[in-house]
Amino acid sequence: MRNETQTNEKTEKLRRVAGLLKGAYGRQRKKKALNPLDQLVLDLLAENSSERRARRAFKRLKADFVDWNEMRVSSLKEIELAISMVAQASTKAALIKEIMVDIFSGYHMVSLDFLRDLSDAVAERYLGHFEGLGKKTIADVLRVLKQGGSGPTYEVARVLRRLNLIKSSLSHEEIGELLCEALPVRRRDHFCRLVKTHAQRICTLKGFTCGSCVLLLECPTGKARTNRLRG
To answer: Where does residue 186 rank: exposed (0-12), middle (13-18), buried (19+ CB within 10 A)?
Structure first.
């Protein structure tokens, strides 16, 4: 009975959150999804760095190099210079180049599309053999491979975890179950886009401010943080 009550409370809370976010951000159009390798690079850049800096670095890579293959044959110094605004730029440049070289040597292309033909377990094992590639990045790449970029991202999971709606920021299954309980199918992707917008603008990975957040009254993390700052 207790679990059923908790489920109902979370369902009602998620619906309230959906209404608040829709009121704040309006209709969020579906954006063209990144391909799996783009997603990997963007997530890697964001590790231990702000999302804003990661996106700037990603755009700089896209501007400085014709494609990932050109970056594969470029020097580490050139790659590091392009992503100098993110933390651990030299380490990330080396890992990005290593990944590009490894993919090309094994599959004669610089793309992760070959993973679409593999099972999730084999694809995860392949990505996991790169030392320094985090679980969050691997989970996002697998999501793009499976869902084409729609559905819950790590950013969505971060917001829902801070709202105490889920326990683990890596459990997409937990998010899926919650969305199935709370929202009709046609609204789930739009809800994820709303939450992702909120994650990028307000509920960022680091340095987020809760005082003006539209979800503050629903968010135990925000309430605790605000009270701590006031005290």
So the answer is: exposed
- 116 neighbors 145 (Cβ within 8 angstroms): yes
Q: Quick one: tokens of 102?
A: 């490894």
Do 88 and 171 fall into the same domain? no
pLDDT range class, residue 3, cuts 50, 70, 90? low
Its pTM stands at 0.64
CA 171 – CA 203 distance, rounded (Å)? 19
pLDDT of residue 171: 62
Question: How many domains does the chain divide into?
Answer: 2
CATH number at residue 76: 1.10.340.30
Residue 137 vs residues 41, 153, 163, 179, 189: alpha-carbon distances, Å: 9, 10, 22, 22, 20
Q: What CATH number is attached to the domain comprising 23?
A: 1.10.1670.10
Residue 113, classed as helix, strand or coil, is helix
